[in-house]
Design brief:
- The protein is mostly helical.
- It has 6 helices and no strands.
- The longest helix has 71 residues.
- The radius of gyration is 33 Å and the shape is elongated.
- The termini are far apart.
């Protein structure tokens, strides 16, 4: 056996071993890279799912809050045309006052403005601008109405026992007095406000249309 045969005999197995080791190393690296990419992809999918769920939640809250305002602006009151209009304005302003609360106050509004499509954001900003205007003009009446509402809810939730006639009678008097106060402030709101009911209903309709479209993905994948 000459030296060339000896070298070839020794190198061929060595080359085979080196080649196999190299392939194994690169295979492990590729597997590790693929697993890392899979994990990143899973994190992205998880984030997108949570973002989609959060967006659905805030849009549903917006739809519900807007429907309260619209129904109030179309309130079927009693009396003369002017009295019915005053009642509608008062009810609409009260629901506008609760609008931000139903959205989750500042944090909820901020979340909505992050996720919603541009047209939805524009409509929400119009409703919030009307909220600001009404609160600036009728803040005292609105806070008094809110106080009456909370006290009435508390009175209803914890009624006085009928067995104790005195306590029960006092509870009924308190409830009646709160209702009278509520009526006074509602009447005051209706008379003093210059709220354009038709314009408000129009904003509500456009808000509902845009929110429903956004909820169905009508503004594209970007939103």
């Amino acid at each position: 056996m000459n030296w060339m045969t000896l070298v070839a005999t020794a190198l061929v197995p060595l080359a085979s071993v080196i080649s196999s080791a190299t392939v194994a190393i690169w295979t492990k690296r590729i597997d590790a890279k693929n697993k890392a990419e899979d994990r990143r992809h899973e994190r992205v999918l998880d984030f997108e799912k949570r973002a989609a769920d959060d967006k659905k939640a805030v849009l549903k809250s917006l739809i519900s809050a807007t429907m309260y305002v619209k129904r109030a602006a179309q309130y079927e009151g009693t009396g003369t045309a002017e009295e019915i209009a005053n009642q509608r304005r008062a009810e609409a302003i009260r629901e506008l006052y609760d609008f931000r609360m139903r959205l989750g106050l500042d944090d909820g509004v901020a979340e909505l403005l992050v996720y919603a499509a541009p047209l939805v954001r524009d409509m929400v900003n119009l409703l919030l601008a009307e909220w600001d205007r009404q609160f600036r003009e009728h803040g005292y009446s609105l806070t008094q109405l809110d106080s009456c509402k909370r006290q009435l809810a508390q009175t209803t939730a914890c009624p006085a026992p009928m067995e104790d006639a005195t306590v029960y009678y006092e509870g009924e008097l308190k409830w009646s007095e709160l209702r009278k106060q509520e009526t006074v402030f509602l009447d005051r709101l209706g008379r003093e406000s210059g709220l354009d009911l038709d314009a408000l209903v129009g904003i509500c309709d456009r808000t509902l249309e845009a929110a429903h479209k956004d909820l169905r993905g009508g503004y594209g994948l970007e939103y």
